[in-house]
Design goal:
single chain; 312 residues
Length: 312
């Protein structure tokens, strides 16, 4: 193939033609992508609607002094963690959904960065408050050891994914930043999918037992992560446009990024009682800044701020 030609054998600057030989229209892609992003944001908001409504009802109970029952006594005994969790999850779910609007994000990059900081903060608050409640609240009925372990596992993975996403964007790696933030958001939206899995399980097999409830809730997190991984792999990384790139093999960076995950997996095999104290050690892992020196550019050719340089 000619080095100056395109993948389809066309010379640069020659427009794409349809079957009749006429120049193909390039204007249909933008409306199609905008409509797709609109449907995606709408779907994410609908998926998070049910748990957000349930959280609003819980806040109303706490504020209005509802009758204390065995199912809500733990919240009245210590309301701050559950209030923080409900509020942070609401902010994370709603604002995080609009981060998937690609066209809006590109037209308003400043908005994306400002809101992104709020999304990161609320996501970490949601994950950490969820871990605190799983660790210190009394287990309710039908919440056994398996579901307790699931809550610790996925809550920790959510916090780790958000932290790795922040580390990636600080060194200018937009592709890995998007991937890790998508994983974190998928876990955070697990409560919405769990409503569907629990409803389907009850319709098929009747009221859940302790084991089936844990498996159905675990399936909600697993389904979301599977969809996120599919979306990440479907969207291939854009070709690097570098001025002077010294990029290590992909597996070296991936192993260094995923190193905290192995620590958490081994940590669960020792004792869940040390999860909370050790969490701060994982949220700020040592980032291999010096391994990658790249100049990452946006689609419009503008260098990404801070790319290729050490953050302050």
């Amino acid at each position: 193939m000619n080095a100056t030609g395109s993948a389809e054998g066309r010379a640069p600057g020659v427009p794409r033609r349809d079957e009749a030989g006429n120049p193909a229209s390039q204007t249909t892609r933008v409306p199609a992508r905008a409509a797709s992003a609109t449907w995606l944001v709408t779907g994410l908001l609908l998926l998070s609607a049910i748990p957000l409504v349930a959280g609003a009802v819980r806040l109303t109970e706490l504020a209005g002094g509802a009758a204390i029952t065995p199912s809500n006594a733990r919240f009245f005994a210590s309301p701050l963690p559950v209030v923080l969790h409900i509020v942070s999850v609401g902010v994370y779910a709603i604002l995080g959904a609009f981060q998937f609007a690609t066209g809006f994000r590109r037209r308003r990059p400043g908005w994306h960065r400002r809101v992104g900081r709020l999304v990161v903060g609320s996501g970490l608050a949601a994950a950490l408050s969820g871990l605190w409640m799983a660790q210190f609240y009394q287990l309710p009925e039908l919440d056994g050891a398996l579901l307790y372990g699931f809550r610790l596992l996925f809550g920790s993975l959510m916090a780790i994914a958000i932290a790795l996403g922040v580390a990636a964007i600080r060194r200018g790696d937009v592709h890995r930043h998007r991937a890790w933030m998508m994983r974190g958001y998928a876990i955070g939206l697990g409560a919405g999918t769990q409503v569907l899995t629990l409803l389907a399980g009850e319709m098929i097999a009747g009221p859940p037992s302790e084991l089936s409830r844990a498996l159905l809730m675990g399936a909600g997190w697993a389904i979301n992560l599977a969809v996120a991984e599919w979306a990440i792999r479907k969207r291939q990384a854009p070709p690097a446009r570098t001025a002077a790139a010294v990029v290590p093999p992909c597996h070296e960076v991936c192993l260094k990024e995923a190193a905290p995950l192995y620590g958490w997996i081994s940590l669960y095999s020792v004792s869940p009682l040390v999860v909370i104290p050790r969490l701060s050690l994982v949220l700020f892992p040592q980032v291999p800044i010096d391994l990658v020196h790249r100049r990452v550019e946006h689609d419009d050719g503008v260098p990404f701020p801070g790319a290729g340089s050490r953050p302050d």
